[in-house]
Amino acid sequence: MAPKHLSVGSSDVPPEEGKLRLYSMRFCPYAQRVHLALNAKKIPYDVVYVNLKQKPEWFLERFPLSKVPALVVNNTDLYESLVIADYLDEAYPGEKIFSQDPLQKAKDRILIEMFNKVSGLFYKIAYAGPSPDPSLLPDLFDAFDFFENELKTRGTPFFSGSKPGGVDYMIWPWCERFEAVRILGGAQFRVPKDRFPKMFEWNKGMIEDEVVKSFFVTPEQHAKFMQSVVAGSPDYDNIL
Amino acid sequence: MAPKHLSVGSSDVPPEEGKLRLYSMRFCPYAQRVHLALNAKKIPYDVVYVNLKQKPEWFLERFPLSKVPALVVNNTDLYESLVIADYLDEAYPGEKIFSQDPLQKAKDRILIEMFNKVSGLFYKIAYAGPSPDPSLLPDLFDAFDFFENELKTRGTPFFSGSKPGGVDYMIWPWCERFEAVRILGGAQFRVPKDRFPKMFEWNKGMIEDEVVKSFFVTPEQHAKFMQSVVAGSPDYDNIL
């Protein structure tokens, strides 16, 4: 693994024998989805972290989209976090993280698509400026209602059932970052526990999950990174 | 099947025994994806077309997203054209329209994702005003290069191989509409044949495909519909 985020003027790191290669950025929520899928499936991989503000020349040249996550499988480059996660679950042995029932799988994929509303609002709130913007909080909580109700309907502590699975891991990265917004913006950014009791229990369960722990960043570290992004010089290596 | 697009004040149509129910709009390219997948798989379904400008009350109430396509499977509502197409291919017997090889399937899904750039530009060009806007044509053709090269690399007449399949059907709806833009905007909107010889052959093959024919709209009809949209009163029933 490359110790720091590689930047302009760097060279790519030779791949490790018998491992998948993931190009990533430590604070990218989409990349985090792939780390969680790989860790949940216990698939051996090495990581090259990329400075997305000053992308290395070799990265721009090799990947036409120049996005992370990018997973290299036998010289084939795969993009798009959800496509990669599905691929890993289908192609690799071990416990499945997504439902094997086509209808349940479709419902879970729709749920993940609906989370795009949450992640879009989260981005606007968190990166509004030196302080988070509270004006979109009501919209964010409205979008959250769907997920609270869904946990109620499913009647299980996690969206995947009695333990976290693919659906949970695909929406987790943004949830991990909410507490950082509260640190930066104060008590008004606290998610109301009485309105979202199921999501609160879900959150507690997720933080205790070994897979989530395997790629966890504390709220304080997230807050520090967000501030550095807003200030124009992302501190990619703040925990490496 | 409901004969016309149902609108405010209408009632929903009772489902037909033994058929899936698809809520659709005749000119929606995303809904067209699902029609093509259903027709390719020869799955029995009935259609209720919905006036998206004046949505029926029952449609707004039943579907929280109020989007088409929506497919009803045993009282479960499925959204998102790609999720629905994948579901149909997995859950129903008959010839598979998507690759069964996980890596090829992932590559095909990435290709469909990359087509979002084409469809986004297409929308901006086609719906710019009474006449299409030529300023984004160079960007559109640049985005097209990827697909021309991909056909060259794959070495097959269709993205799915020797005959059209899921990938082809998922990107076709926007390609069907290009000729309508030329009708409305004139010769400058002609896709240059010398730059895209493979895509030209692909297009000819697609128009002759039975599945594509099963839900085809002529360029003249598309042009007429586009004009009605830009004028503010979409002529949904123009071919029903």
Automatic annotation (TrEMBL), chains A, B:
It comes from the Eukaryota. This is Sepia. Belongs to the GST superfamily. Omega family. InterPro entries: Glutathione-S-Trfase_C-like, Glutathione-S-Trfase_C_sf, Glutathione_S-Trfase, Glutathione_S-Trfase_N, GST_omega, GST_Omega/HSP26, Thioredoxin-like_sf. One of its GO terms (biological process) is glutathione metabolic process. GO terms for molecular function: glutathione dehydrogenase (ascorbate) activity; glutathione transferase activity. Residues 101-225 form the GST C-terminal domain. Pfam families: GST_C_2 (PF13410), GST_N_3 (PF13417).
